[in-house]
């Protein structure tokens, strides 16, 4: 049996969210429909953006889940990504700090979904 883990992020506008995530990830979607778009993150892992499941998501509603982008370059890479995202106007929820497992920061997509950048460990 082939198993893949798909992390689903609920968004208001899947194509707009795909442009946002595609820009952050530096990749194009691997599958697209008007309301469901996925990115192939590597063997067994996909990120899906799904609209139409919830009406009018608001960035003001607290989110408890996160998409975590684990990077292999250590604190210098985390800091470089932070500076790049901040310069692009990405909403930063928490600036880089050491969370015990390494340097990490927290951002949000336009729908308020949380995106953490942390070291691969």
TrEMBL record:
Residues forming the VOC domain are: 1-120
Q: Which InterPro entries match?
A: Glyas_Bleomycin-R_OHBP_Dase (IPR029068), Glyas_Fos-R_dOase_dom (IPR004360), Glyoxalase/dOase/EhpR (IPR026275), VOC_core (IPR037523)
Please report the name of this protein according to its UniProt entry: VOC domain-containing protein
């Amino acid at each position: 049996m082939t198993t893949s883990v798909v992390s689903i992020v609920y968004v208001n506008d899947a194509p707009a969210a795909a442009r946002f995530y595609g820009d952050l990830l530096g990749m194009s979607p691997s599958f697209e429909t008007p309301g469901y778009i996925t990115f192939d993150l590597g063997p067994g892992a996909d990120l899906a953006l799904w609209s139409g499941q919830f009406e009018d998501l608001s960035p003001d509603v607290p989110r408890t889940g996160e998409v975590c982008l684990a990077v292999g370059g250590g604190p210098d890479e985390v800091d470089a990504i932070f500076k790049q995202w901040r310069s692009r106007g990405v909403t930063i929820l928490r600036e880089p700090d050491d969370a015990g497992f390494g340097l990490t920061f927290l951002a949000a997509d336009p729908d308020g979904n949380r995106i953490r950048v942390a070291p691969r460990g």
